[in-house]
Design a protein that fits this description.
By secondary structure, the chain is of the alpha+beta class. It has 3 domains: 2-68, 2-Layer Sandwich (Uridine Diphospho-n-acetylenolpyruvylglucosamine Reductase, domain 2), CATH 3.30.43.10; 73-185, Uridine Diphospho-n-acetylenolpyruvylglucosamine Reductase, domain 3 (2-Layer Sandwich); 232-335, Alpha-Beta Complex (Uridine Diphospho-n-acetylenolpyruvylglucosamine Reductase, domain 1). The protein has helices at 33-38, 93-102, 195-203, 210-224, 245-254, 272-278, 307-325, and strands spanning 2-8, 20-27, 46-48, 55-56, 61-68, 73-78, 82-88, 127-128, 131-132, 137-144, 150-154, 175-185, 232-236, 242-243, 260-262, 268-270, 285-286, 289-291, 298-301, 334-335. It has a 5-stranded antiparallel beta sheet with strand order 6-7-12-10-11, with helices on one face. Helix 3 (195-203) packs across helix 4. It is globular, with a radius of gyration of 20 Å. The structure holds uridine-diphosphate-2(N-acetylglucosaminyl) butyric acid. Uridine-diphosphate-2(N-acetylglucosaminyl) butyric acid is lined by residues 128-129, 224-225, 235-236, 239-240, 259, 271, 273-274, 277, 282, 295-297, 332.
Length: 336
């Protein structure tokens, strides 16, 4: 375990916000949670962080930022068709995807190039291009912060839904995810539901293979989403809103071309990117903060933005969408 006082966080959050925390606690092993618990750290302000790709620091954090940096990917079960991998929470999510590509394992490829660490993936049920991590999560292992006891959640106990899980609700700030087990297919099985992926493969005359699907997704992502090495952002800043059928039908009478998709619990998912773009805000910029010109769902730090500037900016976007469409778009990022 390492404890560093007054630690800068600029390089630890993908927005690149230049703030400090009172202490950065880096854990090498989940068992070290017991020591933090005995020292009463969890009775003081703390923030459990993974790769910092979904975090918006509003200012300096007067508490402990805690990162579990355990590593490792191992095969724990294998049949003729399937394999179960156990992955340490501190592994980059991208390492899991790369491992799968290298070993011809199917199921993670649509989620290529998503930043962040493996332990965070089930918390917000990361998703892209017709897939969600819930489709391959087998089990989530964690440690309860206040008791330092180990717990396990089978997929069906995780309450996964669009960008949500039990870890974001009941277990928020109560549990540290230590490992995630994934079930992958050894037999080819593709998810080409997302029109743009299918079209890309057809128009580039490419065979449907694991490598080609992954490359297609990389290429589509790169054409829409900013490179985090070049521009600070947290990917999609807002979640796509889920509205009731009645609300959608009312909206559709005024805006017949509004894109919509069926979602869980008989709700309708709207495209926040579309709503923002229709407000004329795609590419809109105020000082150091703006909407990414190629994807209206992404807020960009054009350089030197503070968390407060980003918060003021996103609330304006939220208000503009509410004003025009009567729909609340909520942040996907965690405001700290
Ligand atoms: N759209 C616009 N203008 C825009 C962006 C989107 O009109 O500027 C409309 C279009 O109708 C488009 C539809 O929205 O057809 C969907 O757009 P896109 O496929 O780009 O996806 P998204 O709904 O904007 C979601 C995820 C992304 C993920 C993509 C691809 C959320 C919050 N975001 O975005 O995830 O990569 O789908 O599957 O669900 C992230 O979470 O950080 C993220 C990047």
């Amino acid at each position: 375990m390492k404890i560093e006082l007054n630690h800068p966080l600029k390089n630890l959050n993908t927005f690149g916000i230049d703030v400090c925390c009172r202490q950065l606690i880096t854990l090498d092993m989940p068992q070290e949670v017991a020591q933090l618990q005995q020292e009463g750290i969890f009775n003081t302000p703390f923030y459990l962080m993974g790769g910092g790709s979904n975090t918006l620091f509003s200012g300096d954090f007067n508490g402990s930022v805690i990162q579990l940096q355990n590593r490792g990917i191992e095969v724990v079960h294998e049949t003729a068709d399937k394999i179960i991998l156990k992955v340490a929470a501190g592994e980059a999510w991208q390492s899991v995807v790369e491992y799968c590509l290298k070993n011809d394992l199917y199921g993670a490829e649509n989620l290529i190039d998503i930043p962040g660490w493996t332990g965070s993936a089930p918390v917000q049920n990361i998703g892209a291009y017709g897939a969600e991590v819930k489709d391959i999560v087998y089990q989530v292992n964690g440690i309860m912060l206040h008791k330092a006891t180990f717990v396990q959640f089978h997929n069906t106990e995780c309450q996964f839904s669009y960008r949500n899980s039990i870890f974001k609700k009941d277990y928020r700030n109560r549990l540290l995810i230590t490992e995630v087990l994934f079930q992958l297919s050894k037999k080819p099985r593709f998810n080409l539901e997302y029109e743009a992926v299918k079209n890309y493969l057809i128009s580039n005359n490419q065979e449907i293979t694991l490598q080609n699907v992954a490359k297609a997704i990389q290429s589509i992502r790169a054409s829409k989403l900013p490179d985090l090495q070049m521009l600070g952002s947290a990917g999609s800043f807002f979640k796509n809103p889920l509205v009731s059928r009645a609300q959608f039908e009312l909206l559709a009478t005024r805006f017949p071309n509004v894109p919509h998709y069926p979602a869980e619990a008989d709700l309708i998912k709207l495209s926040a990117g579309f709503l923002i773009e229709q407000c004329g805000l795609k590419g809109y910029r105020e000082g150091n903060v703006g909407i990414y010109p190629k994807q209206a769902l992404v807020i960009i730090n054009w350089g030197g933005a503070t968390g407060k500037e980003i918060i003021t900016f996103y609330r304006k976007i939220q208000a503009a969408v509410m004003n025009k469409f009567g729909v609340l778009i909520e942040p996907e990022v965690n405001e700290v």
